[in-house]
């Protein structure tokens, strides 16, 4: 595995920002997710510009250990589509989506929203390594299909489990007790229905 490089990230307005460490194509998964939940979250935040023309979100799966928040921590906020939904971290200052995570610090996976990376820094993440939930895409060509997923998930899950075995915490997103560092806002059923793409 290569050592990877350090890449800065920022919310859209710039108040919240940080550094991703050990970024390289073989140290995470560069994926595109077309699931309805990611689209619902973008709609609920009023942040559709994070989606591509077919409703897709570019993410890079890494682990929280490699994420450093350098500024604007007080703007870190979290959205859940339902009481048991994924933790969708975003910047409250400008509503920019940041990371999507499983709600367990013990399986510490961070799906980083690639839109938060400056275009000139995106090459470090490598080419797209998979497409997820293509059936959730809007007005997409018929040949848009899922690919690359089993291998991609296997790699990152294995690294997350190893990180846990080394007893890394889920910082900066989880506290010592494994709870999210900010109380997530949970959408009501009405809010979720209203934000859901048809
Ligand atoms: Zn902001
Ligand atoms: Zn998704």
Explain this structure to me?
The protein is an alpha+beta fold and 198 residues long. The chain is 17% helix and 27% strand. It has 3 helices and 11 strands; from the N terminus they run βββαβββββββαβα. The chain has helices at residues 36-45, 149-165, 189-195, and strands spanning 5-10, 17-23, 29-33, 57-62, 67-71, 76-80, 87-91, 97-101, 110-113, 130-132, 185-186. An 8-stranded mixed sheet has the order 10-3-4-9-8-7-6-11, covered by helices on one side. Strand 1 and strand 2 (17-23) form a beta hairpin. Helix 1 (36-45) packs across helix 3 (189-195). It is globular, with a radius of gyration of 16 Å. The model has no long low-confidence stretch (mean pLDDT 90). The protein binds zinc ion (2 copies). One zinc ion binds next to loops.
What are the SSEs and their pairings?
Blueprint (H helix, E strand, L loop, with lengths): L4 E6 L6 E7 L5 E5 L2 H10 L11 E6 L4 E5 L4 E5 L6 E5 L5 E5 L8 E4 L16 E3 L16 H17 L19 E2 L2 H7 L3
Parallel strand pairs: 3-10, 6-11
Antiparallel strand pairs: 1-2, 2-5, 3-4, 4-9, 6-7, 7-8, 8-9
Helix pairs in contact: 1-3
């Amino acid at each position: 595995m290569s050592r990877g490089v350090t890449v800065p990230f920022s919310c859209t307005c710039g108040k919240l920002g940080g550094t991703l460490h050990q970024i390289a194509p073989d140290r995470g998964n560069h994926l595109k997710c077309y699931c309805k939940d990611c689209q619902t979250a973008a709609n609920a935040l009023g942040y559709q510009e994070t989606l591509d023309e077919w409703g897709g979100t570019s993410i890079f799966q890494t682990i929280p250990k490699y994420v450093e928040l350098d500024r604007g921590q007080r703007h870190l906020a979290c959205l859940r589509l339902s009481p048991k939904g994924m933790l969708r971290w975003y910047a409250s200052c400008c509503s920019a989506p940041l990371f999507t995570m499983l709600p367990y610090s013990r399986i510490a996976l961070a799906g980083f929203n690639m839109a938060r990376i400056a275009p000139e820094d995106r090459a470090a993440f490598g080419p797209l390594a998979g497409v997820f939930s293509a059936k959730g895409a809007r007005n997409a060509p018929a040949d848009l299909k899922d690919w690359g997923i089993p291998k991609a998930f296997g790699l990152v899950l294995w690294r997350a489990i190893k990180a846990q075995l080394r007893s890394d915490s889920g910082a900066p997103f989880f506290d010592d007790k494994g709870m999210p560092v900010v109380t997530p806002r949970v959408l009501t059923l009405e809010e979720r229905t209203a934000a859901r793409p048809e």
